[in-house]
Amino acid sequence: MGKATRRDFLQRTALGLAGVSAAGFVLRNDAQPTLATVSGDEANRVLIQMGSIPREETPAKGELKRVTPVSFGPWYKTGAPFRAKLSLPGEPGTTFVLSGRAWAFETKRPLAGVVLDFWHVDMQEKYSDGVSDFRNRGRLVSSETGYYELESIRPIPYRPNPSGSPNFWRCAHFHLLAVCPGYKPLVTEIHFKEDPKMSDSMYRPENAIAPEKRTVNGLSFETGVFDIVLERETVSK
Ligand SMILES: [Fe+2]
To answer: pTM of this prediction?
Structure first.
């Protein structure tokens, strides 16, 4: 290949790559989510990547607050699948993206590898049975920066015993069990600010997240952020 020919080849190749870049790898301004072209259950599947995932393993800013524990309740089941979308595709309810970071209380550093086990009610005020049906249950593992993110539906307040105690309401909540070797397991509930049932005696304002409404590519959903802080397990001698 002569000089002129090689230069011409390189120019053509560069142009070709630019073309690929423009046509294939860069979304146009008017790009639409693929959801618009599917139907049925797939049309209701929402895959959402929140904006900024923390990259740095820097210590937490300010003081880390311990998370107030709240008891398991009767509907915890072991063996929930590992997944980041807890609800069924097309399940009724407000799509909700919950995210946050796991931290080590003593070191103020992000905690990787924490198994986060979530469960919550559906729009019928019911928990799945956790045997043959794991709707609205799932486990995730915190990333190397302690980050986690799940998608589900927003839990609603519910009556644990609607026939026997129809006026007893639980505030809306995600249940959470967080487990990490060397740390005390944390069992708690994540509550919501301005919950209509915050008169529930188990409501913990310090555990309440502030939901925000978002719309991305025409998809509306709510978000909330909840950080998880684990304390070192004390070793008895
Ligand atoms: Fe509950």
So the answer is: 0.78
